[in-house]
Every structure is written in structure tokens, then in C-alpha cells.
Amino acid sequence: MRTALRMRLVAPSATLGMAAKAADLRRQGKAILDLSAGEPDFNTPQHIKDAAKKAIDDNFTRYTPVPGIPTLREAVTGYYKKIYGVPVPKEAVIATNGGKQALYNLFLAVLNPGDEVLVPAPYWVSYPDMIRLAGGEPVAVPSSPENGFLVTVEDLDRAATPATRAMVLNSPSNPTGAHYTAEQLDAIMAWAVSRGIYIVSDEIYDRLVYEPAKPASMAGCFAMYPDNVAVVGGLAKSFAMTGWRMGYCIAHPDVIRAMSTLQSQSTSNICSIVQKAAIAALTGPLDCVEEMRQAFARRRDLCLAIIKTWDKAFCPVPAGAFYLFPSLSAYYNEAVPNSTALSEALLTEAGIATVPGVAFGEDRCVRLSYATSDETLEKALTQMGDFLKKLG
Ligand code: PLP
């Protein structure tokens, strides 16, 4: 069967690909230390699981309104009020199958063919493909390890053209953990408003920010400029709920209606049971989120202490998410000339699963996830240091 031309616009996710390769080797009996995971290793908190069980027992198992039941949309608005003090009307909220579907439908809802979308690099693997599938043209805006992988208004302004319609901001970032302060977000917002550029703010890691950095959201900007920004979030990372598939988008009600129309003709409402679980998560106690955040903060420091001993590596201190993105190009040699070769060699020769930086638009780096046990981290990073030393 010959597939459609549009399939040339999309490649399988490199992060999921590496996880599958590691799982294959494990099935063959090899011991793999996995630093490739994009998900918390914690279990979903008990009160959230209980709400899902109750939803089943209560037979809350039928179709619901496409954008989510009103109490779920209100739970999202209540959460933003509680966390950020920002009022968001429930008509500005849609529940989606993970943050991924929110982003996918959002691009489809706002982009026209040929619209350019600025994507600060390194970027999460799915943005360019999603933008292309929606008819847009991703334009990478480079940043560097030396400036903490942050882009400035000047960087964005240099990359913008009359065809620029939107930009993606991902803070904290996958893969770098870079995090924009509230002041930096305000400056980017002011620039975007002045240029008529729509901001897609992917804040899926917004609760995973480590001192001295403070959480910051574009939700406040949305309250001021509802025509200029959409906020995408979800429960996967902060509440350890990757498999449940609960994301959301906060945007102008016209955009939310368009996304709802798309969803009505594709996947309909998200799982009814998950909606009840999500309400429990968003309206319930948040100490479980705080406990996981503290564990991630401790692991980040543990990893950084080991990476500091790799004499040719450069790793900016990430303020959020659960990734490190060290620049390792000083170790590249003839046999291992790039991030793909380094990740392959680490997997097959040292039994360590990582993700090559090239998948995120930065071939000097490799992504390491610290969403795993302290023991695995210590062992993997110590072995990785020994492996790098052998490269030169
Ligand atoms: N955005 C970023 C930056 C991510 O890293 C991910 C997941 O890895 C997502 C969005 C999608 O999250 P979800 O599992 O809610 O679809």
C-alpha cells in the first residue's frame, strides 16, 4: 500500500524510538541503564487512582461533551487561579488526549499554509513535524549552552519575517531544562504583541521548577492578551500520569471552539474516567506534586555533581523539567563523530540509553533524563564518564 505524500512530513519520534531500542536490548537479556525516559518513575498518587475507580463504579463511562465535562474545565480554571492567581474563563479551556493532542490541534486550528513558526532550538522533537502537518513552516531559532539555552527578543526578531505567524515557547524545556523567568516571558510577550505573532506556550513541566528559579506561566499574559497566546499544559509530568493522557489548552474561546470541532471529528472527548481522575488531581492536595519535585531537584544536583567531573563536558544548570543536556562534542572523534553515534555507542558498548541531541536540533549534546532512581543515575553517569574518558 502506497502511503500519502503528507507522510513525508513526519518521522517517528526519536525519543520513543530510543526507548524501544533499549527495551529490545533488555528483552535480549542485556542490563540497560535507562536515561532516555521522558516520564516520571513515580506512581500516580492514590487519591487520583481512587477517583478513577469510583468513576468506573459509578458507571461514569459514557460519551461526554467534546471539550470535557464542565467540572473538569472549571477544575483547570480553579487550578490556574490557585497556582498563578489568574482568572481563566472555562470557555477558554479544552481537555485533550495529552499535551500532545492540545499542541497538534492548536497548530491545525491557527496555522494557514506557508505560515512560519519560530521554534527556539533545541526543541521538543514533535514541534517541527506537527507544524508541517498543519501546513506551517518551522523556523529554528538557535540558542547555545553558553547562554543557558535561552533565546532573547533580539534572537527572535532576527529570525522573524513578514510570514512569521506564530512561535513556540517551551518553558521549562524538553530537552534542556531551560526556564524563562516571569520578566523574560513578559518581554517576549510584549515583542510578540508588537509583531502580531501568536505564542504557543508549552508549559507541560510548569510545576517542575527548582530553586532558586520560580515557576512562571504565560497564563497571566493570556488574561491580558487572549488573542496573542495559548497555554498548553497537562498532568503527565507533574502528577506522574503519562499513561492517562490528560492535557489541556487555554486559549481564546474562538480557538477553543475550533479545536473542539477538530476533536469532534477525530477523537471526541478524552476518556470519561480520566476526566474524573483529573478533577481529583487538579482540585486535591498538591503535596504529592511537591514531593516528586523535591526528589527531582535532589537527583538533578546528584547528576550535576558527577557531570562536573567529566573534564570536556559543558552542562548548563537546568532550572526545570527532568533533563540534562550536556554538550559533549569535545569528546567526538573519527569513530564517534556526532550525537547519534555517541548515543548508539553508549547503548551498545556501555549499556546506557540516552537520546541524541540531533533529534532536538543540537548535535553537540545528548539528552539525559533523571526521571529514574538515584542508584541508576549514579551508576549510569559514573560509567558514562568512564566511557567518555576512553573516547579522548
Ligand atoms: N510537550 C513537551 C515539551 C513534552 O516533553 C511532552 C512529552 O514528552 C509533551 C508536550 C506531551 O505530553 P503528553 O504526554 O501530555 O502528551
What would you say this structure looks like, in words?
- Belongs to the class-I pyridoxal-phosphate-dependent aminotransferase family.
- This is Aminotransferase.
- Its cofactor is pyridoxal 5'-phosphate.
- The protein is of the alpha/beta class.
- The protein has two domains: 143 residues, Alpha-Beta Complex (Aspartate Aminotransferase, domain 1); 240 residues, Type I PLP-dependent aspartate aminotransferase-like (Major domain) (Aspartate Aminotransferase, domain 2, 3-Layer(aba) Sandwich), CATH 3.40.640.
- Helices cover 42% and strands 13% of the residues.
- It contains 13 helices and twelve strands.
- The strands form three sheets. It has a seven-stranded mixed β-sheet with strand order 2-8-7-6-5-3-4, sandwiched between helices. The chain has a three-stranded antiparallel β-sheet with strand order 9-12-11.
- Strand 3, helix 5 and strand 4 form a beta-alpha-beta unit.
- Helix 3 runs parallel beside helix 10.
- The protein is globular.
- The N and C termini lie far apart (48 Å).
- The relative contact order is 0.17.
- The mean pLDDT is 96.
- Bound molecules: pyridoxal-5'-phosphate.
- Pyridoxal-5'-phosphate (PLP) binds next to helix 4.
Beta-strand fraction estimate: 5-15%
Residue stretches low in confidence (pLDDT < 50, at least 5 long) are: none
Number of DSSP strand runs: 12
N-C termini distance: 48 Å
Number of helices: 13
Q: What radius of gyration results from the CA coordinates?
A: 21 Å
Small-molecule binders: pyridoxal-5'-phosphate
**Estimated structural class:** alpha/beta
The CATH homologous superfamily of the largest domain is called Type I PLP-dependent aspartate aminotransferase-like (Major domain)
Helix content: 40-55%
Gross geometry = globular
- Average pLDDT: 96
Count of domains: 2
CATH architecture of the largest domain: 3-Layer(aba) Sandwich
Can you summarize the main beta sheet?
Answer: 7 strands, mixed
